[in-house]
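Researcher: For the annotation table, I need structure tokens for Ribonuclease PH. Please keep the output clean. Sequence:
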Amino acid sequence: MRPSGRKLDEMRAVSVEVGFTKHAEGSALIKMGDTHVLCTATIEDRVPPFIKGSGLGWVTAEYGMLPRATNTRMRREATAGKQGGRTVEIQRLIGRSLRAGVDRVALGERQITVDCDVLQADGGTRCASITGGWIALRLAVNKLMKAGDVITDPLVDPVAAISCGIYAGQPVLDLDYPEDSEAGVDGNFIMTGSKQLIEVQMSAEGSTYSRDQMNQLMDLAEKGVSELVAIQKDVTA
């Protein structure tokens, strides 16, 4: 039995509120259970120096957690004067995941920055950030297309992410914090709407896992991502 009472292949309740902020070109508040992440997309008519003049667009991301996103207060990274290693790793993951679903030629020479701010954390913040980040990106691109600034849709495939792991000896979908903290194996699966893999992060903690168990987790991830992509399409239609 999972602590939440969910079935092994059951995700937490997912809700999305689009247009959550007034000023961003695209915004979405995504809630996956008790993990809540605000995702905003900002369009800028510039690109990083290393692709300037290439005609290619760029999608990047920044990630952060509010001090009381967890059960004890975390010091703001700005106060410390630098980002922590975990933050840098996660925002790079978000950026390269979102870029995997973008035709950068069609986007044109502009940059879209997706900011993911964790308001409340209960496991799976990077997965919620990627899933919500794509929604914010989709909304921003819709504005570009409506204005005629982009002719061909640069978003070739939705991108979503879900966690899976082995908890109490059983493969489970969408780990919350009580499961994540006790899981023998924990993984994050980033995929496109057409079920193409972008990245898989798997690690065993005090345990090991077999090829068969890996396949079971992959099947769970495909199910979860399919459900998330359906939600993405519904809220951005």
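Researcher: And a one-line annotation?
Model: DSSP finds six helices and nine strands in the chain.
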